[in-house]
Write a structure and sequence with these properties.
- There is one protein chain.
- With about 170 residues, this protein is mainly alpha-helical.
- It folds into 2 domains: about 5-75, no CATH class; about 110-165.
- Helix content is about 40%, strand content about 0%.
- It has helices at about 30-50, 60-70, 110-115, 120-130, 135-155; strands at about 5-10, 15.
- A two-stranded antiparallel sheet has the order 1-2.
- Helix 4 (about 120-130) packs across helix 5.
């Protein structure tokens, strides 16, 4: 990647790095006074071109401006963005349901327990338990499920089960 040189600002004279998207054109730094000077220089350059010198003068332009002002009443009185106006609503907190017991998956076969889960989950459990037996994987799955449900419901009585997987 090519290293970008620093430039001297035409407004304040300080060294700055131009925005990479506008490196060919940027001659002023991002300081507010320099941005104003950049705009003034840009306007002077635009007005110096012969085709733009009468852009704001003459009967046609007076009519054009009056028509635009009628279509946009009070435009110059509007303030910028309204303060305190959120772009989106706050997200609502969702309570986790407290369940006393979770009979889910207690007596089901491994194929029924993990029918909707990808095979990688079974492989991960087999790897963690160092066993490819379906009974060991099913037992570990039940313990992990119970541990996860306990964590989500706020109970801590099964917090030590993670260290005792077969």
């Amino acid at each position: 990647m090519k290293r970008q040189r620093q430039r001297k600002c035409l407004g304040c004279g300080a060294l700055f790095r131009a925005d990479p998207r506008n490196v060919k054109h940027q001659r002023y730094c991002s300081a507010p006074a320099c941005r104003q000077a950049s705009k003034a220089a840009s306007q002077r350059q635009w007005l110096s071109q012969p085709e733009n010198q009468d852009y704001f003068r003459g009967a046609q332009n007076v009519v054009r401006v009056r028509r635009w002002r009628e279509q946009h009443p009070g435009y110059w009185r509007r303030s910028g963005a309204r303060e305190g106006c959120a772009l989106q609503d706050d997200s609502c907190e969702q309570a986790v349901e407290m369940k006393e017991e979770s009979p889910f998956l207690m007596d089901d076969a491994l194929q029924e327990v993990l029918s909707a889960q990808p095979a990688v989950l079974i492989g991960l459990i087999a790897h963690l338990t160092d066993s490819a037996l379906q009974e060991d994987i099913a037992l570990s799955t039940r313990r992990l499920l119970q541990l996860g449900q306990d964590i989500l419901s706020g109970r801590r009585e099964h917090g030590d089960q993670a260290g005792h997987l077969p």
